[in-house]
C-alpha cells in the first residue's frame, strides 16, 4: 500500500500493494472543483449529517448508513465524490487497487479482500473500491471463473461483517453486471450522469474562472460542450487555454472549437 504522510501499517499481499492511502488533507486538494448535481449533493449531505449524529442513531436503534455504491458513465465524478466524502468526514481514504487484489491463484483474491476489509474494520477510513464490477460481477456470468465466484462470496461476508467504524464506497460503470446479492448490501445508491445545462455552466465557470477571454465565451462554451462528460469538458477547456497561452491572446471561441475537434469526445 502506498502511503503518504502517516506511519500506519497497511495490508500487503506478498509484497503487492493493495491500495493507496490519502490523508483527509490530500483528499481536500483533489476536490476543489467538484460539481455535485442537487440530488447527489443532498444524498452526500444527509449521509454526513447522519454520521455526525451516531449517538442519537444508536439511542433510536436505527443503524447508520455506511455502504455507498456510485454508478454511471466515465468522467462524471464518482471517484471525486469518494475523495469529497473522506474530506468531509475527516477520514483517510484507502483507494483499493484492483490489480493488487485480484490474483489468479486459488483463494488468493478472497484472502486479499478479507485483509483489506479487516484493515478498514480496525482503522476508521473510507474504503474505496473503484471498478467494483471487476470483483462483484454476477456469479452466473462467472461460471468459468470459479475464483471470482468465490471472491463474490467472500465479499458478501466481508460486507455483512463490516461494522460501522468505516465507510465502504464502491463505484462502477457497469451496474447491471453487479451481483444482485452484493447490490442489496448497499444502503446508499448514487447515480451519475453527464452534466445537465446548469452543472455544465457551473463547471465551465469554475474552469475558465478569471482566465482572460473574449466576450460571450462562457455561454458559447456551455453550448458547444453539451453532451460531454465533466472529464471531457475539463480536457477540452485545458487544451483551449493552452492554445490561448501560446498565441498570447485571450481565450477565443475558435480555441474551443479546435480543441473539441482534436479531443474528439465520445458523445452518447
Ligand atoms: N462532477 C464533477 N465535478 C468536477 N469535476 C469532475 C466531475 N466529474 C469529473 N470531473 C473531472 O474529471 C476527472 C475524472 O473524474 P472522476 O475520476 O471522478 O470520474 P469517474 O466518474 O470516477 O470516472 P470513471 O468511471 O472513469 O472512473 C476529475 O479528476 C475531474 O477533473
Ligand atoms: Mg472513477
What report would you give on this structure?
The structure is a single chain. By secondary structure, the protein is α/β, with parallel strands linked by helices. The chain has two domains: 2-191, Rossmann fold, CATH 3.40.50; 197-263, Helicase, Ruva Protein, domain 3 (Orthogonal Bundle), CATH 1.10.8. Helix content is 49%, strand content 12%. The chain contains 13 helices and nine strands. The protein has helices at 24-30, 38-51, 54-59, 78-89, 98-101, 108-122, 133-136, 146-160, 180-184, 197-208, 217-224, 230-246, 253-263; strands at residues 2-3, 12-13, 16-17, 19-22, 67-71, 93-96, 126-129, 167-172, 188-191. It has a seven-stranded mixed β-sheet, sandwiched between helices. Helix 10 packs across helix 11 (217-224). The longest helix has 17 residues, at 230-246. Adenosine-5'-triphosphate (ATP) binds at residues 33-35, 74-80, 130, 171, 173, 192, 203, 230-231, 234. This is ATPase. Pfam families: AAA. InterPro entries: 26S_Proteasome_ATPase (IPR050221), AAA+_ATPase (IPR003593), ATPase_AAA_core (IPR003959), P-loop_NTPase (IPR027417). Residues 64-196 form the AAA+ ATPase domain. Keywords: ATP-binding, Nucleotide-binding.
Amino acid at each position: 500500500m502506498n502511503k503518504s504522510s502517516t506511519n500506519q501499517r497497511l495490508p500487503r499481499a506478498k509484497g503487492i500493494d493493495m491500495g493507496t492511502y490519502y490523508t483527509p488533507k490530500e483528499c481536500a486538494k483533489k476536490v476543489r472543483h467538484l460539481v455535485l448535481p442537487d440530488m447527489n449533493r443532498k444524498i452526500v449531505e444527509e449521509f454526513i449529517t447522519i454520521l455526525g449524529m451516531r449517538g442519537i442513531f444508536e439511542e433510536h436503534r436505527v443503524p447508520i448508513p455506511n455502504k455507498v455504491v456510485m454508478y454511471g458513465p466515465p468522467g462524471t465524478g464518482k471517484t471525486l465524490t469518494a475523495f469529497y466524502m473522506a474530506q468531509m468526514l475527516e477520514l483517510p481514504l484507502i483507494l483499493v487497487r484492483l490489480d493488487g487484489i485480484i490474483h489468479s491463484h486459488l483463494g488468493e483474491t478472497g484472502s486479499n479482500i478479507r485483509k483489506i476489509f479487516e484493515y478498514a474494520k480496525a482503522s476508521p477510513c473510507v474504503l474505496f473500491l473503484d471498478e467494483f464490477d471487476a470483483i462483484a460481477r454476477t456469479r452466473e456470468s462467472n461460471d468459468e471463473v470459479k475464483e471470482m465466484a468465490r471472491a463474490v462470496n467472500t465479499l458478501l461476508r466481508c460486507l455483512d461483517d463490516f461494522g460501522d467504524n468505516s465507510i465502504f464506497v464502491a463505484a462502477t460503470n457497469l451496474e447491471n453486471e453487479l451481483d444482485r446479492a452484493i447490490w442489496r448490501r448497499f444502503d446508499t445508491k448514487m447515480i451519475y450522469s453527464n452534466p445537465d445545462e446548469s452543472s455544465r455552466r457551473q463547471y465551465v465557470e469554475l474552469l475558465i474562472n478569471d482566465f482572460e477571454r473574449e466576450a460571450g465565451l462562457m455561454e458559447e462554451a456551455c453550448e458547444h460542450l453539451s453532451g460531454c462528460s465533466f472529464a471531457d469538458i475539463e480536457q477540452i477547456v485545458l487544451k483551449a487555454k493552452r492554445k490561448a497561452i501560446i498565441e498570447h491572446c485571450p481565450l477565443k471561441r475558435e480555441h474551443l472549437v479546435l480543441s473539441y475537434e482534436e479531443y474528439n469526445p465520445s458523445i452518447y
